Amino acid sequence: MQIIKSADKPTLGRLAAASASRIIRAAISARGFAHVIIATGASQFETLNHLVQDRAIEWGKVTLFHLDEYIDLPVTHPASFQKYLRERFLAHVPPPKTFHFVSGAGDPAVECVRLNSLIAQTPIDLAFVGIGENGHLAFNDPPADFDTEVPYLVLNLDDACRRQQLGEGWFESLDHVPRQAISMSIRQIMKSAHIVGSVPDARKARAVRDCLQGPVSNLHPSSILQTHPRCDIFVDEASAALLTP
């Protein structure tokens, strides 16, 4: 794992997007296609903003997997991750080869079976991730399951995770924040050949310190990223404030 510090969020996003672009283009050059896991949330705003402006990526050769989604949240809701990706990503790039969305409607167990069959035999070139205020990776809140090999899971969201979603302005009140989500598992994320993490803002500073410089523990789920050989975590001055040199 490597930590890359930037002065501000726009620079963080530009550097993270440039790193991701190199990985995607290299995969396409080597094999003719790329497989990418794409994340959402406020942490990804600047990274995606720069990524969609990169005209060197042949998106028609890229298959994308959606990282996570709330259960029973309409796709028209402002907090829907599917809505987020359609508006902030797909509307700005040529159509990808395939985009496997996570659907929070219907039976979540059935949806997990569908997604698991799609990704089980798919080597992933790149995963975009963030780090939650509680240290979560995707929606794997502490104490996270570091052992399951199941690619997608139905997970209960803890109060700290739900308060983060409220604090970011996605919901009107805590009662409106869903209590469950379908999320990619820790082990599935870690199977990615490369990981690019974007983690801006002062509210993430404690999680950045605990997860990137503390012991690897399922109480700080993103700490597992320390063990990945090709993981680059991009932080800004605010989120890096508690890191030791």
What does this entry look like structurally?
- The structure is a single chain.
- The protein has helices at residues 9-31, 45-51, 81-88, 108-119, 159-167, 186-190, 205-213, and strands at residues 2-5, 34-38, 62-66, 68-70, 98-100, 126-129, 152-156, 180-184, 194-199, 231-235.
- α1 (9-31) crosses α2 (45-51).
- The protein is of the alpha/beta class and 245 residues long.
- The protein is built from 7 helices and 10 strands.
- It starts with a strand and ends in a 10-residue tail after the last strand.
- The protein has a single domain (2-235), classed as Rossmann fold (3-Layer(aba) Sandwich), CATH 3.40.50.1360.
- The chain has a 7-stranded parallel β-sheet, with helices on both faces. Strands 4-8-7 form a 3-stranded antiparallel β-sheet.
Give a short synopsis of this structure.
The protein has a single domain, classed as Rossmann fold (3-Layer(aba) Sandwich). The chain is built from seven helices and ten strands.
